[in-house]
Structures are given as structure tokens and as C-alpha cells.
Amino acid sequence: MQTKVLEYIIAIADERSVTRAADRFYLSHPALSRHLRRIESELGAPLFVRTRRGMELTPVGIVFVNDAREILQIERELMRELGDGSSVPKLKRELRDGSGILKGKQ
């Protein structure tokens, strides 16, 4: 699953609308609906239910969106750390000797 798809699902949750979320990404409504159906098919559960107030997250959808937000935050932090390339030598050294980045994450 690509991180862009995570962004799409979060946008649907934030906008409570596939149409408004599609507009945010300059996608057609059918294209975004296909992404949503594909993810729901992979998970074997719906992420949203349609109500008069718009699209509402199911319990599975709540977990998915919260985790998707975390994944995207981790991706942003990683890109910020490695973005200019100056951290790469330090990162390689830490990976080799086992210090630093993974300590305390277990």
C-alpha cells in the first residue's frame, strides 16, 4: 500500500466526503472511490458508512486512520532527518554498531 493512498483515506475522513477529498487531490470521485474499495477489499472490512451527515468512520476505519496518521508522521520525520543527506553517515554508523535509533523502540 502506498502512502498516497493513506493520505486519500485520511482526506475522506477529514472531509466526510469522497467528492471533497477527491477535489483536494485533483482526482475524480470514481477514481478515489476505487482506491477506497480496493483498501476495504484488502482489509476485508468497510472503513466508512454513509450517513446523512456524510461519510463516517467504522471502528475499523478509526483504527486505520489513526495508524495511517502515525505512519505518515514517521515518514515525514524520516524525510526530515535524511532529507539533506547529512544524516546518512551517522545513520550507517548507528546501524552498524547498534546504537541510537532503535534503542528503546522495542
List its traits.
about 110 residues, mainly alpha, two-stranded antiparallel sheet, 5 helices, about 10% strand
Written overview of the protein:
- The protein is mostly helical.
- The chain is 65% helix and 8% strand.
- The chain has a single domain (3-97), classed as Arc Repressor Mutant, subunit A (Orthogonal Bundle).
- Strands 1-2 form a two-stranded antiparallel ribbon.
- Helix 1 crosses helix 2 and helix 1 (3-15) packs across helix 4 (59-82).
CATH topology: Arc Repressor Mutant, subunit A
Main sheet attributes: strand count, strand direction, barrel closure? 2 strands, antiparallel
CATH class: Mainly Alpha
Strand order of the largest sheet: 1-2
User: Judging from the principal axes of the Cα atoms, what is the shape?
Assistant: elongated
Q: Quote the average pLDDT.
A: 86
The N- and C-terminal alpha carbons lie at a distance of 24 Å
- Helix content estimate: 55-70%
Counted up, domains total 1
SSE layout:
Elements: H1 3-15, H2 18-24, H3 29-43, E1 48-51, E2 54-57, H4 59-82, H5 88-97
Antiparallel strand pairs: 1-2
Helix pairs in contact: 1-2, 1-4, 2-3
Please outline what is shown here:
By secondary structure, the protein is mostly helical. It is elongated and about 55 Å long. The chain has one domain: Arc Repressor Mutant, subunit A.
